[in-house]
Amino acid sequence: MKILVIGGTGTLGKAVIKEFGADHKIVTAGKTHGDFQVDITDENSVKTLFHSTGKVDAIIATTGSLHFGPLVEMTAEQFNIGLQNKLLGQVRIALIGQSFLNDGGSITLTSGIIADEPIRQGANATTVNAAVEGFVRGAAIELPRGIRINVVSPTVVEESLKAYGPFFPGFEAAPAARVAKAYRRSVEGAQTGRVYKVW
Which family does this protein fall into (predicted)? Predict the structure, then answer.
Protein backbone atom coordinates (compact mmCIF):
# COMPACT_ATOMS: atom_id res chain seq x y z
CA MET A 1 0.00 0.00 0.00
CA LYS A 2 0.99 3.60 -0.54
CA ILE A 3 0.33 5.43 2.73
CA LEU A 4 0.47 9.19 3.26
CA VAL A 5 1.32 10.17 6.84
CA ILE A 6 0.62 13.83 7.58
CA GLY A 7 2.49 14.80 10.73
CA GLY A 8 5.05 12.10 10.09
CA THR A 9 7.89 13.93 11.84
CA GLY A 10 6.13 14.23 15.20
CA THR A 11 6.39 11.76 18.08
CA LEU A 12 3.29 9.82 17.08
CA GLY A 13 3.95 10.15 13.37
CA LYS A 14 7.41 8.64 13.69
CA ALA A 15 5.96 5.66 15.56
CA VAL A 16 3.32 5.20 12.86
CA ILE A 17 5.97 5.27 10.13
CA LYS A 18 8.03 2.69 12.01
CA GLU A 19 4.91 0.51 12.38
CA PHE A 20 4.14 0.54 8.65
CA GLY A 21 7.56 1.13 7.12
CA ALA A 22 8.59 -2.48 6.56
CA ASP A 23 5.35 -3.47 4.83
CA HIS A 24 4.21 -0.43 2.86
CA LYS A 25 5.42 2.54 0.86
CA ILE A 26 5.34 5.59 3.14
CA VAL A 27 5.05 9.20 2.00
CA THR A 28 5.39 11.86 4.70
CA ALA A 29 4.16 15.43 4.94
CA GLY A 30 4.65 18.07 7.61
CA LYS A 31 4.62 21.81 8.10
CA THR A 32 8.39 22.12 7.71
CA HIS A 33 9.73 18.57 7.28
CA GLY A 34 8.89 15.42 5.36
CA ASP A 35 8.71 14.45 1.71
CA PHE A 36 6.20 17.26 1.20
CA GLN A 37 5.32 20.39 3.15
CA VAL A 38 1.73 21.27 4.02
CA ASP A 39 -0.19 23.78 6.10
CA ILE A 40 -3.36 21.95 7.12
CA THR A 41 -5.09 25.25 7.91
CA ASP A 42 -4.80 26.30 4.26
CA GLU A 43 -7.06 24.65 1.70
CA ASN A 44 -4.79 25.39 -1.25
CA SER A 45 -1.81 23.93 0.60
CA VAL A 46 -3.70 20.69 1.27
CA LYS A 47 -4.85 20.51 -2.36
CA THR A 48 -1.27 21.05 -3.54
CA LEU A 49 -0.11 18.24 -1.27
CA PHE A 50 -2.52 15.72 -2.75
CA HIS A 51 -1.84 16.79 -6.31
CA SER A 52 1.85 16.22 -5.53
CA THR A 53 1.41 12.80 -3.91
CA GLY A 54 -1.08 11.50 -6.46
CA LYS A 55 -3.32 8.55 -5.63
CA VAL A 56 -2.76 6.79 -2.31
CA ASP A 57 -4.27 3.80 -0.53
CA ALA A 58 -4.39 5.29 2.94
CA ILE A 59 -4.21 8.70 4.58
CA ILE A 60 -3.13 9.04 8.21
CA ALA A 61 -3.21 12.37 10.05
CA THR A 62 -1.27 12.61 13.32
CA THR A 63 -1.11 16.37 13.39
CA GLY A 64 -2.99 19.35 14.77
CA SER A 65 -2.48 22.13 17.31
CA LEU A 66 -4.67 22.89 20.32
CA HIS A 67 -4.88 25.64 22.92
CA PHE A 68 -4.32 24.77 26.58
CA GLY A 69 -5.12 27.37 29.20
CA PRO A 70 -7.50 28.36 32.00
CA LEU A 71 -11.08 28.79 30.84
CA VAL A 72 -11.51 32.03 32.81
CA GLU A 73 -8.72 33.63 30.78
CA MET A 74 -9.45 32.01 27.41
CA THR A 75 -10.40 34.19 24.46
CA ALA A 76 -12.38 33.17 21.41
CA GLU A 77 -9.24 33.78 19.35
CA GLN A 78 -7.29 31.28 21.46
CA PHE A 79 -10.13 28.78 21.29
CA ASN A 80 -10.14 29.15 17.53
CA ILE A 81 -6.58 27.75 17.35
CA GLY A 82 -7.82 24.20 17.92
CA LEU A 83 -10.87 24.67 15.72
CA GLN A 84 -8.87 25.88 12.73
CA ASN A 85 -5.91 23.55 13.19
CA LYS A 86 -6.62 20.13 14.69
CA LEU A 87 -10.36 20.06 13.88
CA LEU A 88 -10.78 21.75 10.51
CA GLY A 89 -7.26 20.80 9.49
CA GLN A 90 -8.07 17.10 9.77
CA VAL A 91 -11.55 17.59 8.30
CA ARG A 92 -9.93 19.40 5.38
CA ILE A 93 -7.52 16.50 4.89
CA ALA A 94 -10.43 14.06 4.74
CA LEU A 95 -12.65 16.17 2.48
CA ILE A 96 -9.93 16.85 -0.07
CA GLY A 97 -8.10 13.56 0.37
CA GLN A 98 -11.09 11.32 -0.35
CA SER A 99 -10.80 12.13 -4.06
CA PHE A 100 -7.16 10.99 -4.07
CA LEU A 101 -7.82 7.63 -2.42
CA ASN A 102 -7.94 4.45 -4.45
CA ASP A 103 -11.11 2.36 -4.17
CA GLY A 104 -11.27 0.66 -0.78
CA GLY A 105 -8.81 3.12 0.71
CA SER A 106 -8.89 4.52 4.23
CA ILE A 107 -8.56 7.72 6.21
CA THR A 108 -7.38 7.68 9.83
CA LEU A 109 -7.56 10.84 11.93
CA THR A 110 -6.41 11.49 15.50
CA SER A 111 -8.39 12.69 18.51
CA GLY A 112 -7.39 11.99 22.13
CA ILE A 113 -8.48 10.77 25.54
CA ILE A 114 -9.58 14.28 26.54
CA ALA A 115 -12.65 13.84 24.34
CA ASP A 116 -13.94 11.51 27.07
CA GLU A 117 -11.87 12.51 30.10
CA PRO A 118 -11.64 16.32 30.38
CA ILE A 119 -8.69 17.89 32.16
CA ARG A 120 -8.10 21.33 33.64
CA GLN A 121 -7.09 23.89 31.01
CA GLY A 122 -8.23 21.49 28.28
CA ALA A 123 -11.67 22.81 27.25
CA ASN A 124 -10.43 23.50 23.74
CA ALA A 125 -8.89 20.04 23.44
CA THR A 126 -12.03 18.29 24.71
CA THR A 127 -14.21 20.18 22.23
CA VAL A 128 -11.93 19.58 19.26
CA ASN A 129 -11.26 15.90 19.93
CA ALA A 130 -14.95 15.15 20.44
CA ALA A 131 -15.77 17.01 17.24
CA VAL A 132 -13.17 15.04 15.25
CA GLU A 133 -14.80 11.83 16.46
CA GLY A 134 -18.24 13.13 15.54
CA PHE A 135 -17.04 13.99 12.04
CA VAL A 136 -15.63 10.49 11.56
CA ARG A 137 -18.89 8.83 12.62
CA GLY A 138 -20.88 11.04 10.28
CA ALA A 139 -18.52 10.74 7.33
CA ALA A 140 -18.28 6.95 7.59
CA ILE A 141 -21.85 6.41 6.35
CA GLU A 142 -21.37 8.61 3.28
CA LEU A 143 -17.95 7.84 1.86
CA PRO A 144 -18.17 6.16 -1.57
CA ARG A 145 -16.13 3.46 -3.32
CA GLY A 146 -15.59 1.38 -0.20
CA ILE A 147 -13.51 4.11 1.44
CA ARG A 148 -13.33 3.80 5.22
CA ILE A 149 -12.65 6.41 7.90
CA ASN A 150 -11.67 5.90 11.54
CA VAL A 151 -10.04 7.86 14.36
CA VAL A 152 -7.42 6.88 16.91
CA SER A 153 -7.88 8.31 20.41
CA PRO A 154 -4.65 7.93 22.41
CA THR A 155 -3.94 8.74 26.00
CA VAL A 156 -0.88 10.90 26.64
CA VAL A 157 2.10 9.14 25.07
CA GLU A 158 5.12 8.27 27.19
CA GLU A 159 7.51 10.13 24.90
CA SER A 160 5.55 13.38 25.47
CA LEU A 161 5.30 13.20 29.26
CA LYS A 162 8.01 15.80 29.77
CA ALA A 163 5.98 18.39 27.87
CA TYR A 164 2.40 17.34 28.64
CA GLY A 165 2.63 15.18 31.77
CA PRO A 166 1.61 17.96 34.21
CA PHE A 167 -1.72 18.30 32.35
CA PHE A 168 -2.50 14.60 32.92
CA PRO A 169 -2.19 13.85 36.64
CA GLY A 170 -2.93 10.20 37.36
CA PHE A 171 -3.33 9.26 33.68
CA GLU A 172 -1.58 6.12 32.52
CA ALA A 173 0.66 6.92 29.56
CA ALA A 174 1.07 4.64 26.56
CA PRO A 175 4.22 4.22 24.46
CA ALA A 176 3.89 5.68 20.98
CA ALA A 177 4.63 2.23 19.49
CA ARG A 178 1.52 0.83 21.18
CA VAL A 179 -0.61 3.70 19.90
CA ALA A 180 0.72 3.06 16.39
CA LYS A 181 -0.85 -0.42 16.43
CA ALA A 182 -4.28 1.22 16.41
CA TYR A 183 -3.45 2.98 13.15
CA ARG A 184 -2.61 -0.42 11.64
CA ARG A 185 -6.00 -1.74 12.78
CA SER A 186 -7.64 1.18 11.02
CA VAL A 187 -5.66 0.93 7.79
CA GLU A 188 -5.52 -2.85 7.36
CA GLY A 189 -8.80 -3.77 9.06
CA ALA A 190 -12.35 -3.73 7.71
CA GLN A 191 -14.17 -1.41 10.08
CA THR A 192 -15.32 2.17 9.52
CA GLY A 193 -16.65 4.93 11.70
CA ARG A 194 -14.74 3.55 14.68
CA VAL A 195 -12.93 5.32 17.51
CA TYR A 196 -9.91 3.20 18.45
CA LYS A 197 -9.09 4.08 22.06
CA VAL A 198 -5.56 3.44 23.31
CA TRP A 199 -5.78 4.17 27.03
Answer: Belongs to the short-chain dehydrogenases/reductases (SDR) family.
